[in-house]
């Protein structure tokens, strides 16, 4: 099962790492602005709006986990 975890901040990244530790095929996505504060190679940084990134990869994963406010998630996935 492929899992994508989306984070928007450093604290969210810490939680995503805990999720990542329990599953083999987990990929963590974070905005490019976090590349300076998160120095890890196992993270996929994106420089486009969250809604565009999610719409591009929506069908590539069985599970999408969002570590952020629920209102953001609803606005991002509602059009899909």
From TrEMBL:
Signal sequence range: none
Transmembrane segments: 61-78
Alphabetical list of InterPro entries matching this protein: CbiG_hydrolase, CbiG_N, GbiG_N_sf
Domain Cobalamin synthesis G N-terminal as annotated: residue spans: 54-80
Key words, A-Z: Membrane, Transmembrane, Transmembrane helix
Cited Pfam families: CbiG_N
Protein name from the UniProt record: Cobalamin synthesis G N-terminal domain-containing protein
Organism field: marine sediment metagenome
Top-level taxonomy: unclassified sequences, metagenomes, ecological metagenomes
């Amino acid at each position: 099962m492929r899992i994508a975890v989306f984070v928007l901040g450093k604290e969210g990244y810490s939680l995503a790492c805990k999720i990542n530790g329990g599953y083999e095929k987990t990929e963590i996505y974070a905005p490019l602005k976090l590349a300076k504060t998160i120095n890890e190679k196992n993270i996929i940084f994106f420089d486009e709006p969250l809604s565009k990134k999610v719409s591009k990869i929506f069908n590539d994963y069985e599970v999408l986990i969002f570590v952020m406010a629920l209102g953001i998630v609803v606005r991002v996935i509602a059009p899909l």
